Amino acid sequence: MRDPITVLVVDDSELVRSSIRTMLELEGDFRVVGEAATGEEAVAAATRLRPDVVLMDINMPGMDGIQATQILRERLGVPVVVISVQGEAEYRRRALAAGAREYLVKPFTVEELAAAVRRAARAEPPGHRPPAQRSPE
């Protein structure tokens, strides 16, 4: 069995962090190693915990998620999946330019969340689909 993918959940809402933790734990191959409510806390926690993937909200007090994503990319190279209620193309563009590997618009399903985290952990490009398995001839 593989080691679980370790995840840091960053959102200013405790309820959202708790919901995401529950969603990931249902999948079985993730372990939430920490939570943060601000961009500053995210940078400090990621530096300390070294998660495989960071789930990052955009709109937070103080340092926003886009700035925190850029810092994490530059300092740690940790993959970031942005999770936001902001579905506009400009937010997506800014997040991806800052270094986010994926961008999910809330609300999302467990399946969408799990797939995005797995792709980010494997450093696959956004929207990547594995090649179809060929059937034996």
Structure, explained:
- This protein is of the alpha/beta class.
- It has one domain (5-121): Rossmann fold.
- It has helices spanning 14-27, 39-49, 65-75, 89-98, 110-121; strands at 5-10, 30-36, 53-56, 80-84, 102-105.
- A five-stranded parallel sheet has the order 2-1-3-4-5, with helices on both faces.
- Helix 1 links the parallel strand 1 (5-10) and strand 2 (30-36).
- The radius of gyration is 15 Å and the shape is globular.
Quick recap of the structure?
Mean pLDDT is 89; it is low at 125-137.
Based on the model shown, name its key terms.
globular, Rossmann fold, five-stranded parallel beta sheet, alpha/beta, 137 residues
* CATH level-4 homologous superfamily: Response regulator
Give the overall pLDDT as a whole number. Answer: 89
- Biggest sheet architecture: 5 strands, parallel
Find the count of extended strands (DSSP E, 2+ residues). 5
Percent of sequence in beta strands: 15-25%
Pairing-aware structural class of the strands and helices? alpha/beta
Ends: how far apart? Answer: 30 Å
Name of the top-level CATH class: Alpha Beta
Number of helices: 5
Q: Supply Rg.
A: 15 Å
> Helical amount among residues, as a percent range?
40-55%
CATH architecture: 3-Layer(aba) Sandwich
Morphology: globular
Q: Indicate the low-confidence ranges by residue numbers.
A: 125-137
Strand order of the largest sheet: 2-1-3-4-5
Q: What's the number of structural domains? A: 1
| CATH-assigned fold name | Rossmann fold
